[in-house]
């Protein structure tokens, strides 16, 4: 099969591309490298800032797009799969649809349908936009962000993309729940892929006399949105209470390869605060045999059909909850070791690149 991945998010498409190539498929990834992560791509679609960057980016796309034809499947990462205004994205989307076979949509990151589910439809007890009926720190710090997502050009653009893709694949429980009413039987849950060939499993957790190393990985542009600022605050609170038991480190805006090297020396890794579901960072953490602080609500485990393993430490925006969860880990080494021992097996069952690639291939076969 000849496959084009347009755009990427935390290396999802790059990971799939590597797995599919191992199986003999012809795959091209055109992306910005997931920005600071610098993930693998065949065609670089990064955009420099300023007017000169905008002109150069648009010129690059006009030169490139006529060559992107003849693919069996084109998989776009989000309705906003290019760094352009919606009207211009639709032009390039139409060209992809006209010159290729089926078009799939990977539901990754926010879009108007997801934001509507968080803000207007009350689908979740909490999200990066709402905690109950209250606005989150991210919304308060970004005036007008909800309006921009839900009104005018952005909403119309999202509806256009949803209506014109042949299939959609959700990476997280939340994206699936929010988009299901709009996509119907075109929607398949896929999950986030993890390339276990490049992630080595850790041998052991720290002994009773050793400190627990807590790593908080931060992308500056998403720090408040994902709540990693609050997770860092919680971790440092626990460190101040138990300096003999733990120490906190920060990895900010690192390329993926460098970040994975930092991850090797950690025991506990903070992922995000407002999610029901573990994301890429948490899954890579578990694949290494570490313990992840992330989303792990009962709805998520039920959704994926996991009845036994519970390796993720669920952190929520409830005041004091993250501190209590982190403190429980650093003071109970038996618990820490038990959770760590389940992580790799959990990822192998639900998120190994081969498992996720199989789901993609099955979804594509239905539309080809």
Description of the molecule:
The chain has 368 residues and is α/β, with parallel strands linked by helices. The protein has two domains: 207 residues, 3-Layer(aba) Sandwich (Rossmann fold), CATH 3.40.50; 139 residues, Glycogen Phosphorylase B (Rossmann fold), CATH 3.40.50. Strand 4, helix 3 and strand 5 form a beta-alpha-beta unit.
Alpha carbon gyration radius: 20 Å
- The sequence of SSEs as H and E is EHEEHEHEHEEHHHEHEEHHEHEHEHEHHH
The number of distinct structural domains comes to: 2
Average predicted local confidence, pLDDT: 95
* CATH class annotation of the largest domain: Alpha Beta
Number of DSSP E strands: 14
Given helix and strand content, the structural type is alpha/beta
| CATH superfamily descriptor of the largest domain | Glycogen Phosphorylase B
Our count of helices gives: 16
Key descriptive features of the protein:
alpha/beta, 7-stranded parallel sheet, Rossmann fold, 5-stranded parallel sheet, single chain, 368 residues
Any chance you could write out the topology, listing elements then pairs?
Layout: E1 2-6, H1 12-22, E2 26-31, E3 43-44, H2 50-64, E4 73-76, H3 86-99, E5 102-107, H4 112-119, E6 130-131, E7 134-135, H5 137-141, H6 145-150, H7 152-164, E8 167-170, H8 173-183, E9 187-189, E10 212-218, H9 223-226, H10 228-241, E11 246-252, H11 256-263, E12 268-270, H12 280-287, E13 291-294, H13 298-304, E14 313-314, H14 321-331, H15 333-350, H16 353-367
Parallel strand pairs: 1-2, 1-4, 2-3, 4-5, 5-8, 8-9, 10-11, 10-12, 12-13, 13-14
Antiparallel strand pairs: 6-7
Helix pairs in contact: 1-16, 3-7, 4-8, 10-14, 12-15
